[in-house]
Amino acid sequence: MISPPIRVFDLQFGCLTRLSIDVFPSIDDCYTVIHNCQAATDLYIGIGTLLFPHPPTMTNLINVIFLPNLQLFHIKSHGGISGFFDHFVFPHLLHLSIQLQRDIFEDDEEDGHCILDYPAWPQMAVSLFFRQSSCHITSLRLNQINLTFSDTMELLSAAGEFLEIIHISSFQAIMAEYSSMCCVDDNMLEFLTWNDLDPLQTCPRLSQQFLTTRMSAYYDL
Q1: Would you say residue 57 has pLDDT above 70?
Q2: pTM, rounded to two decimals
Q3: Domain that holds residue 43
Q4: Strand 139-145 vs strand 165-173: parallel, antiparallel, or unpaired?
């Protein structure tokens, strides 16, 4: 009798402390692997475009993904992360890194032009993740994220007072309807600058900050 082939994602991940997977065939596989990494301290997860056409739902077998040992979580997504953090609880997480890949597609209405499509940033979900995990994030790295100033302020407040390193690379679209999409301005720099007269800052332990806003617009092919 021939045994059925073993799928890669059916393997036992419970003994691993560090795991890097750049592609998953389905959202169920992604959640199952993360859920089974109970001993993991470092996770590097890549998410493809097709996994998240709509906010994902958890399987009936997994309601909460609780990883007691996870300290570093790196996410690279080509389709956004809306709904991805809804069921995560990582109480000892120290380092969070999120990179959203942009899609470039042709605009049929604007012949000869291309548009950069930015995945939506799930501000409320990420802030809720910080609160429900009660983790002490020391390093926050966000790359190619479409953040407004208010989003950035709320995110830093939700991350807590233990932040030491902040790297945020955001994008501002040069179009009137997106004119408020800028996470770095004078108010942000003033907020992150130590003031002896007002020492109650959101990030009093901050030792390194890297904040950039890149511009994007329509361009000719």
Answers
A1: no
A2: 0.79
A3: 8-194+202-220
A4: parallel
